[in-house]
Amino acid sequence: MSRWTGRTLLALVLPAALLLAACGDAANSASPDDGGTAPDADVTGAWGDTANPKAPSLEFNPGGRVSGTDGCNRLMGHWSIEGTRVTLQDMASTMMLCHDVDEWLSAGTAADVDGDTLRIYNQAGTEIGVLARPRSGA
User: Which of 24, 26, 63, 128 yields a CA-CA distance of 20 to 30 A from 106?
Assistant: First the structure.
């Protein structure tokens, strides 16, 4: 009878152990060294000089919305990220006529997070400009 009890115990414990092992945090277990993918870069927050309305800047909301200015027109849309590549989606802008303003940021369709630098690319994949993450306390 103790042999049957041992099998019963094994039949109950083994599936429970497998179930708990399957509940591990796969997102934190992947690393570039073991063939996994690195976590997405943190793009949320401000990029550029948000205090100066005549300077290009973007603000990435954690909910996937992006807004900013090219130094003249207001920009708004959605964003997503995979690794360090940010994709700008459904971008729209106001149509103000401003003289002596380089409106390069309004042509951005993608960006790469490179530390505290955001490299902006146009539809052709050409880098068209960069925005710096403001320093803390600045």
Answer: 63
